[in-house]
Amino acid sequence: MALTLQTYPTVTAANAALASGGRYLGGGTLAVRAANEGELSFDTLVRATDPQLAAIDISDSNVRLGASVTMAAVARHKGLGTIAQAARAVGGPAIRNMATIGGNLFAPAPYGDFTVALLALGATVETDDEAMDIGQFLLVREKLKGIVTGVRLTLPIEGTFRFLKVSRIKPKGVSVLSIGALIERDAGETVTSARIALGCMADRPIRAKKAEDALVDAKLTGDGVAKAVEAVTDGIRPITDPIASEWYRREVLPVHFRRLLLA
Amino acid sequence: MAKKVPIQLMLNGEDRAEFVDSGATLLTVLRERFDDTSPKGGCHQGTCGACSVLVDGELRLSCLTLAEACEGQSIETTAGLAKEGVLHPLQRVFLDGFAAQCGFCTPGMIMAAKALLDHTPNPSREDVVEALSGNICRCTGYEPIINAVLAAARANSHNAA
Which of A222, A233, B50, B106 is the most exposed place for a label (fewest CB within 10 A)? Predict the structure, then answer.
């Protein structure tokens, strides 16, 4: 099927075009791949070239990443060091030069590792006319009217954010699972708050809320994390794909989660 | 029938213009309209890296890049590396180091290596492994390729000294 690309200078114009059909083109790693694989649900690709979509704005620890910002741009930005690890976990160098924040938000499991980090960090997702918590966004992303324009987040204090991607191929491969964890501790090293996000444990990133609850007031020791490790599989529905089965992912999640907490 | 759109770009230092199908990938246009068959179509999913090219100096997968989106940009492919019959240093070390067997992945590997060395002239082994991590080779086991890239970096630094 022949594809047509429509290019618009503004998000408003692109949204208007998408209202009559088509699929948004970010970096191409999802939309063009789908077209190459023969997906017939769209014959028009729409893109917007508004420079704000590719802007990174940092004010103190408050960050806004435009939806067209690439993983490579995040990984090399000196002000984003604490989340660069999650951006570097996405694909190889060419994919990182193309894959965008906006695209990653829509990537189905086993992709979307950066979104796991954004979920752990409690990011806010913006469209042209609204902003919503990323947890809410992930529930409604297929029904969203209009494109995502960017995300806002607060950079984690150094040492509070942990990220792990597990794959079978080194140094890079598709995720068996990924985990993002924002864990704050008091002076006595007792956990005061925790946000845990999991990738590949459903068709999209999810929170591990029981594990979060179990971590509060605990210390990050073998005994201290035991209840959280036991709780981390609560409510998960891991995907099965050529990389790993649902059973395998369920079995190895607690092992990797424990290692991440004790690292 | 696909709508035709005009594109102008710089291919290996030469201005090129063509009417192409809107929505055609850069890989298709390079191979079928510009007769540059050095980028290979492997997986068409962004997984194998055989189609890797440089777009404005940045490594991209031409199978997932729309040609129309490259309007006005500079494209570099392996076909443009040799100058006046002399192989590019990366091509020379691949040849000397037996870093190619079937050769299908080689253009993508070389462009990924060029992207690395253009920005990191003295890479570590880990840098090279990371730089080639998006390129699949089913023949060599990667070691000769990694060694070739390191050899090219050594030759560069020797020449610069």
Answer: A222
Q: Is B76 on the interface with A (CB under 8 A)?
A: no
Q: How confident is the model at residue B161 (pLDDT cuts 50, 70, 90)?
A: low
Residue numbers in B near A35 (CB within 8 A): 23
Give the Cα separation of B146 and A171 in Å (integer).
14
Going by the DSSP 8-state scheme, the letter that residue A70 receives in this structure is: B
Digit-coded pLDDT (tens) for A33-76: 999 999 888 999 999 999 999 999 999 999 999 999 999 999 99
Of the candidates A86, A53, A50, the residue with the CA atom closest to the CA atom of residue A71: A86
pTM of the model: 0.95
Domains of chain B, earliest start first: 4-78 (3.10.20.30), 89-160 (1.10.150.120)
Query: How many other β-carbons are positioned within 10 Å of the β-carbon of residue A122?
Result: 17
From chain B, the residues in CB contact with A45 under 8 A are 23, 66
Q: Domains, chain A, ranges and CATH?
A: 4-48 (no CATH), 51-154 (3.30.465.10), 161-262 (3.30.390.50)
Q: Give the minimum alpha-carbon distance from B104 to chain A in angstroms, rounded to a whole number.
A: 18
